[in-house]
Amino acid sequence: MSFILNRRALLATAGFGIGGLMLPGGAAMAQALLGLTGFTHNVASGEPGPNSVLLWTRYVNPTGGPSKVRVEISESRDFAKTAGGGQMVTGPWRDHTVKITVDNLAPGKWHWFRFIAPDGSMSPVGRTKTLPVGKASKFNIAIFSCSNLGFGEFNAYGHAAAREDIDLVLHMGDYIYEYGRGGYDGGAKFAARIFPADEILTLADYRLRYASYRSDPQLQALHANFPMIPNTDDHEGANDAWEGGAQNHTPDEGDWNARRNAAMQVWREWLPVGEQPWKEYPIGDLATYYRTDTRMVARSKPNFHGDLMRSADPAKAFADFRDGAWRDPAMTMFGTEQESWLFGAIARNKATWAVLGTGTNMGYNFTPEEAMNWFPKDAPERTKNFVRQGIAAAKAGLPYNLDNWGGYPVARSRVLAAAQRADANLVVVTGDSHNGWAFDLPEDGKPAGVEFGGHSVSSPGFESATVGVDPAVIARNLQEASKQELRWVDTSNRGYMHLSLTPQAATNEWVFMQTVKDVSLETKAGHRMKVRPGRKILESA
Question: Is residue 174 scored above 90 in pLDDT?
């Protein structure tokens, strides 16, 4: 069977899959997730190359022991002639996941694939595509981030899965969230779908969390229809993660390295991704995509404005930080090894576009003084303090978020300077913030590239705390405060980005879903911007 999704199929199956976990007896259904046998979570593909692709499934032998699973791939949906295949042994040591890389495929072509179990049963049929070689006139990429089961339906996945104008999917991170029910989600009705119910800490916890997320029919459809290249951000491990810890990890939760290693092991088990922490993907003469890691490998511990705000003289503390620790060249997102790889790869790139994927915003945002008017008078004190910190930082010339590239300005400069040296047409694509952004990225007073920042699949943006305030007012305030780089912002919609690359332009559309509160593929008016080769600044599309 094929899992290619259309509107009718989505609405017909809306009551099944992950939705079943919200029914009475949902805990029993969670136990059933652990006891499923056969092909439990559909199929997926990733790591596309011109002649190869990685194919994924999960197969559980009824005995719970090892299984030898085969895969077939064909250029035709009916598998009249196979183009290749492979086999491997899986078992409980890798949570019964199967990842097989198939070589010697034709470049730039759609392929269909299916897995075959030892008893002859077959998985659903998936579809994937190899990367083009040579001349490429157009290439379309769907870009996602921040998908939290606790906050609503994954309608963005379903909408993209039903499209025919996508060649590749990128996920910029926060594919899952680590929190338990009733925490970050505030006890929303959708939180009942989150398993295990408590915050995840161990190998078994992370595996069950992925099993619950991957039961969602819209996410399964997306994976079954297109190859995906995923990046990590923090919630694959824990909030505000860095090399040596995380904001949402405390000593009583055990050793951070053990938790981080468990999280990354399961990320690799459950996603169609290889073992390399970073990699480049050639898209003919049109583009090269660079997958990076800015969380788990070498990121320095971030600073936080709250620590400065609590000093005896906050204004002086912010100024001292701006002139000192903020500019420390040792502060890194990538680490020196990854930087060396990336800068060399960009210098060698001969394609029109250099597309850099990184978890968090690279463009700078500054908190306007008007932000205090965005929130009701009875807003939580925590929210008010966050805004006060941002305003104090802006007065000192500091961006509001030090956990994104705003906290690592010298490292950011190194990336942008490398792009300038190579005269690259740099397009940075990001996630993390839950809101939509478009930035020009200057370095040393000259254009270096642009950023398309993606809004979330379901996690709430500014609108969750600014009820009753016109989003256009918030956007105008933000743009006025951040006018050096910020060219457009949306703080009230969920969805995904659709990036279309041609030799003439890189055009990005922010696709806004009508709702995440119910299963629906309806959209509302979105927004488009583009950049032309050699210009390195944004314009309307």
Answer: yes
pLDDT tens figures, 137-171: 999 999 999 999 999 999 999 999 999 999 999 99
CATH number at residue 63: 2.60.40.380
Q: Is residue 189 part of a domain?
A: no
- Structural domain contains residue 101: yes
Distance CA 196, CA 97 (A): 19
DSSP character at residue 225: H
Give domain status of residue 95, yes or no.
yes
Complete DSSP assignment for 433-496: SSSEEEEEEEETTEEEEEEEEPPPSSS--GGGT-TTS-HHHHHHHHHHHTTTTEEEEE-S--EE
Asked if residue 27 has pLDDT above 80, the reply is no
Least confident of 8-12, 28-32, 131-135, 405-409: 8-12
Rounded Cα distance between 97 and 56, Å, is 7
Q: What is the pTM of this model?
A: 0.95
β 446-453/426-430 pair status: parallel
**Number of domains present in the structure of the chain:** 1
Can you state the angle between helices 336-348 and 409-421, rounded to 10 degrees?
A: 20
Residue 297 to residues 164, 177, 240, 339, 395, Cα–Cα distance (Å) = 36, 19, 14, 12, 33
- Cβ atoms of residues 246 and 234 within 8 Å: yes
Q: Is 222 exposed, middle or buried (0-12, 13-18, 19+ CB in 10 A)?
A: buried
Burial of residue 472 (number of CB atoms within 10 Å: 0-12, 13-18, 19+) = exposed
- Please give the residue range of the domain that contains residue 75: 39-130
The span from the CA of 271 to the CA of 283, in Å, is 22
- Are 59 and 40 within 8 A, CB to CB? yes
- Cis peptide bond N-terminal to 196, omega within 30: yes
In one letter, which amino acid is 271? Answer: L
The helix or strand, by DSSP H or E, that contains position 539, with its residue range, turns out to be strand 539-540
- Residue 102 and residue 88: Cα distance in Å, rounded? 12
Averaged pLDDT of the chain = 93
Q: Examine residue 418 and state whether it is found in any structural domain, yes or no.
A: no
> In sequence order, what are the residues at sequence separation of 6 or more whose Cβ sits closer than 8 angstroms to the Cβ of residue 287?
136, 139, 351, 352, 353, 354, 355, 501
Which residues lie below 8 Å from residue 71, measured CB to CB, with a gap of 6+?
55, 57, 85, 86, 87, 98, 100, 102, 113, 114, 115, 116
- Assign 72 to helix, strand or coil: strand
The mean pLDDT of 382-401, rounded to a whole number, is 94
- Dist. CA 247–CA 263, nearest whole Å: 16
What percent of the chain clears pLDDT 70, i.e. is strictly above it?
94
